[in-house]
Amino acid sequence: MSQTTSESGRRVRVGPCEIRYERMGAGTPVVLIHTLRTQLEYYRPLLQELAGGDLEIVAIDLPGHGHSSAPAVEYTAGFFTDAVGELLDQLELSNAVIAGESIGASIGLGLAARGHPRVARVVAFNPYDYGKWGGIRRSSGLANVLFTAMLWPGVGSVVARAGTRGVMERIMAGGLHDSEKLPPDLVDALMESGTLPGHARAFRSLCLQWRSWIEARAAYPSIRVPVTLVYGEHDWSRPEDRDANARDIPGARREALASCGHFSWLEAPQRAARIIREASA
């Protein structure tokens, strides 16, 4: 196992990618996996609520996100699931609780569907496995225009690299019921990481591979570990999307977060932490 440390966190080599992560605490291992286009700083409000107690928290930057590297590969749901599965092996975690939001939730469900031996339970917040061309288009008119244009040949690469802080704020606000819950320093971190080598290409590839997130749902009936499905009242998913997952995942337990959108770990960190702690007991 090859691991290094730096001022911005620990790093571990996983396949073609170097992944940044933080590891803290002791007890039941809980692996936090963020949403599309966010990163380790996204966890800060949740980490404050999870601090103390008997949990070992592993918080990661997915490949092509934050300060993890962005290898020239296709960023399918399967690629991300492979990477996180190998990370669990590299860090030698046992009986881990996977707590993910958005694509992080879908990755956790994918690991469970594969029967990954290190996964004991999944807490899936607002899984991202629905929507024509990707569910984020439901968040706002601006998001629909930008994320559709990102798929176009030629111009899509330009759109992926472009963008201002104001645009980033508006896109992120589209995932919140209360836009005041968007931390300014998170926006700063997202703007910085978006300029790193390969990251714009990686994000466009993730968007181009939108079908892979939906197709991964076909494996949900194979899940044999306990799953808690958590949806914000104002998440981009529709009632039929949520019902389909509850129906397809054997024995899934459901929770709802009132007055909350897609980015529940920003809007409702205390309630999210309670659900994670209950699942880890």
What can you tell me about this protein's structure?
The radius of gyration is 17 Å and the shape is globular. Helix 2 crosses helix 3 (103-114). It has a single domain (3-280), classed as Alpha/Beta hydrolase fold, catalytic domain (Rossmann fold). The protein has helices at 44-50, 77-90, 103-114, 141-149, 155-161, 165-173, 184-193, 199-208, 210-215, 239-248, 264-267, 269-280; strands spanning 3-6, 9-14, 17-25, 28-33, 55-60, 96-101, 119-125, 227-232, 253-257. Strands 1-2-3-5-4-6-7-8-9 form a nine-stranded mixed sheet, sandwiched between helices. It is an alpha/beta fold. It has twelve helices and nine strands.
Question: What CATH architecture do you see?
Answer: 3-Layer(aba) Sandwich
**Unreliable parts:** none
The number of distinct structural domains comes to 1
Q: How many β-strand runs?
A: 9
Query: Shape, please?
Result: globular
- The CATH class label is Alpha Beta
Radius of gyration: 17 Å
N→C terminal distance: 29 Å
Class by alpha and beta content: alpha/beta
By CATH's scheme, which homologous superfamily applies?
A: Alpha/Beta hydrolase fold, catalytic domain
Nearest-integer average pLDDT: 95
Q: Sheet with the most strands?
A: 9 strands, mixed
Q: Helicity level, as a percent range?
A: 25-40%
